[in-house]
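Dear H.,

Thanks for agreeing to be a second pair of eyes. The structure we're designing against is below in token form, covering all 227 positions.
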């Protein structure tokens, strides 16, 4: 599918937030993290606030993919993180990471989250910080393609744009991969550095609604150096 990539801006916020909501509605972890499921309005408000925080983050790039008809069909965010105390160390799943866009947005609306679960997820994010160990890098924190347009090469184009920036700067790229996107990242040269398993059935109070172990991967890609 032919798309044009360009920087996103504040006028795109409602569209990007709704796109983010639609994608995360499919994630089992969202059913546990958000109260009053399906919580459509709460999810939209959270993602709109989080994307706004990303747009205001120094050294953050947010690119949108627009179809030939002018429809925004996907977007991606990658942020340059300096050594100790980087500007963005959040993740695709809501986390209590301090000072990042996710935590700022979450801090404004804690009442919509299952905070017991969110706090229990904190060690997952902390383990990635330990793996990164202060290195300068790019962090890919948001990557979304509208569900009906997935599988048409849009995600590959968006991801490729961020990796071009990292390659130009000669820096590695880190991310936290949800189960459904793990294979895509492997195809783009990312490798597993670690993973964390969360028993969603336990957090669902053993109601046996089909939840199982939810694995989130810490992944890293070294830059390609041009000759």
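And this is the sequence the design step returned. I haven't edited it by hand at all.
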């Amino acid at each position: 599918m032919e798309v044009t990539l360009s920087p996103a801006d504040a006028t795109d916020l409602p569209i990007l937030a709704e796109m983010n909501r639609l994608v995360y509605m499919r994630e089992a972890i969202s059913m546990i993290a958000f109260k009053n499921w399906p919580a459509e309005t709460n999810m939209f408000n959270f993602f709109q606030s989080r994307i706004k925080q990303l747009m205001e983050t120094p050294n953050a790039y947010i690119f949108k993919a627009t179809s030939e008809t002018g429809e925004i069909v996907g977007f991606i965010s990658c942020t340059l993180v300096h050594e100790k105390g980087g500007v963005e160390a959040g993740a695709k799943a809501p986390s209590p990471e301090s000072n990042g866009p996710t935590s700022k947005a979450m801090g404004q609306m804690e009442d919509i989250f299952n905070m017991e679960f969110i706090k229990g997820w904190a060690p997952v994010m902390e383990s990635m910080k330990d793996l990164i160990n202060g290195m300068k890098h790019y962090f890919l924190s948001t990557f979304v393609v509208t569900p009906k347009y997935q599988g048409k090469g849009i995600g590959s184009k968006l991801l490729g744009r961020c990796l071009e920036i990292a390659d130009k700067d000669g820096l590695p790229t880190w991310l936290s991969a949800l189960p459904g996107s793990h294979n895509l990242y492997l195809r783009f040269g990312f490798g597993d550095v670690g993973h964390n398993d969360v028993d969603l059935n336990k957090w669902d109070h053993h109601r046996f609604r089909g939840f199982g172990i939810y694995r989130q991967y810490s992944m890293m890609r070294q830059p390609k150096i041009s000759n």
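Two observations from my side: Strands lie at 3-7, 60-67, 72-81, 137-145, 173-177, 191-199, 213-221. The chain is about 35% helix and 25% strand.

Warmly,
E.
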